[in-house]
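Troubleshooting entry. The earlier prediction with magnesium ion gave an output that would not parse, so I re-checked the input for stray whitespace and re-submitted. Clean input:
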Amino acid sequence: MAPLPACIACIDPRFADLVLFNAELELLAEGFRWLEGPVWFGDHHCLLFSDIPNNRTLRWSEQHGVTVFRQPSDFANGQTRDLQGRLIQCHHRSRCLTRLEHDGSSTVLVDRARGQRLNAPNDVVVKRDGSIWFSDPLYGLLNDYEGGRQTSEQPPALYRLDPDTGVAEAVATDFDGPNGLAFSPDERLLYVAESGAPGVAEPRQCIRRFVVGDDGFSLSGGEEFARISPGWADGFRVDEHGNLWCGAADGVHCLSPEGVLLGKVLVPHRVSNLCFGDRFGSRLFLCASTALYALFTNTRGATDR
Ligand code: MG
């Protein structure tokens, strides 16, 4: 077998099938503050991502490099696309989710739940039935760096938003800090990062796994699936085989569907979040603190399009 690039740490032999011997980690751009929220737009062949402290949404393409997509972004964090390809963004400052319409206007999808204002929506994913699932931890309210200090009106929770009714129902409330989330390829499982209560000596930090009921929205389980160390779980994606690719303090950790650490992509900066993209959905884009990296892999994202 050909030696793997220096950026690849193979822990389980299965990882060698998911990476390429001749694909190195690429630095695409740097000079940002804190990157998050990558989402691939295959029809525009570009990546959108959030530079939260700089209050802007950026766009990267092979042709044009990095350009400003939207500034101010209202301190946008997590992003995804709905079934019509429209951009959905989580906003810290205005404590809401918005949808960018095809005519360029913006619609607030939700800013309240359980009779109170949301905290600071962090990350979001759309299920194949069109429902929008998002996390609402406290993090974005706690300091001025990521949107301005504000007062929380309710505990953290995980929500399912019906875009037809505009109603967000809490589907899990026993979270200290719900963060990144992703469904398994068959959408029978939902993984959610628990990043823990802020300011606590030993916060509960792990990825939790829920079973999605036959009704498509009720959750059971929620046990600890895996821990990310060093660091803690934030954003992640699932590939076509059901493996989880998770941001970590030392790069990216790849976990099997059983929760076994298969290997790592070593990155010089902490990776907060990532997504698959490019022509075949097999290139990983990494939001790594002040820099944007990419790596071609030998697998494909389950959902990025
Ligand atoms: Mg996050």
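This one parsed fine. The domain at 8-296 is CATH 2.120.10.30 (Neuraminidase).
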